[in-house]
Amino acid sequence: MKTAILVIIIILIVLILIVLLLGLYMVMASFVRNDGGRFDRTDNPPDSVSDPDYKRYYEEAIRGQKMLADASPEDVSIQSFDGLTLRGWFLPAKEPTNRYMICVHGYRAYGPYEFGGRMEFLMSLGCNLLFPDNRAHGRSDGKYIGFGNLDSIDCLDWCRYLIDRFGAGIEISLLGCSMGAATILAACGDPKAPKQIKRVCADCGFSSGIDEIRAQVTEMFHLPYFPFVPVAVWEHKLLAKYDLRERAAKEMIRNFKGKLLIVHGGADTFVPTRMAKVIYDAADCEKELLIVDGAKHVLSWLIDPEAYKKAFLKWFEPEGQDADPETGKGTV
């Protein structure tokens, strides 16, 4: 009897250790910086990419990245609340304007590369553009990825940077992809968000950090939610010093009273399409939802550029003015 109990205890200890180690592996693989400080992705699309849509995505990203570099953007930086140096690219509009757009990239990406495929379109809008690198990405400092939580605080600091530099009379639009979308959704709903934030366009954003981890573990890797997700969340909080359950996009967006556009691919399995509806239903503001049939993660603009641009220009049009159908600039 004693031997049987001892065996059971040993088995339980081994199982607990396995769960702890798997949770730690998930945290280290998913939330620790792994780019080695490399940010200049000017090479060819990765050989491992076989999907033709994503091959085109990479080709467009490289082209747009070069387009921004050729425009000689200004290198800018701020200090985060916890002492990190965060860096970005600032491209002023060709003509003076009080309109500014902060373009926030997604997971394991960086500013110019994430928006490379839309660079020409964005540059045609006639607004000032800021492409920050999130913490632990690109040229910015940091070991642990903020996963929309800490990034949303950093995003507000970038907003204050623009306000301090260019004055309180500016108008800020936020554009984000994937993790960047979750970032701006949380930022705009923060009680401390500056009033200058007028518009938010979230492309393939997840409803919360914990929702995204749950989806990854249960739907992509086919593992049970318990015990893997709770253990990983606990270990993540110990190491990264923030909670994946906090500053959730689906909760923070309730406080935003500006203009909201949610875009999501109908074939997105990385951030399940259903999360777009969760966020949309939670928002209490002027809002629009665009689901692009057949589009995978962050590929809506590539699969249906006409629908994307139409929704985007409607969202971007100045208040009280009609938008030019080609540029989105207001006309009296």
Task: Give an overview of the whole structure.
It is a single chain. With 332 residues, the chain is of the alpha/beta class. It has two domains: 1-31 and 225-243, no CATH class; 51-208 and 245-318, Rossmann fold (3-Layer(aba) Sandwich), CATH 3.40.50. The chain is built from twelve helices and ten strands. It has helices spanning 2-31, 52-70, 111-114, 119-123, 149-166, 179-188, 209-220, 225-240, 249-252, 274-282, 300-303, 305-316; strands at 74-79, 85-91, 99-104, 128-132, 171-177, 197-203, 259-265, 286-292, 322-323, 330-331. The strands form two sheets. It has an eight-stranded mixed sheet, sandwiched between helices. A hairpin with a 6-residue loop joins strand 9 (322-323) and strand 10. Helix 5 crosses helix 6 (179-188) and helix 7 (209-220) crosses helix 8. Residues 322-332 have low confidence and may be disordered.
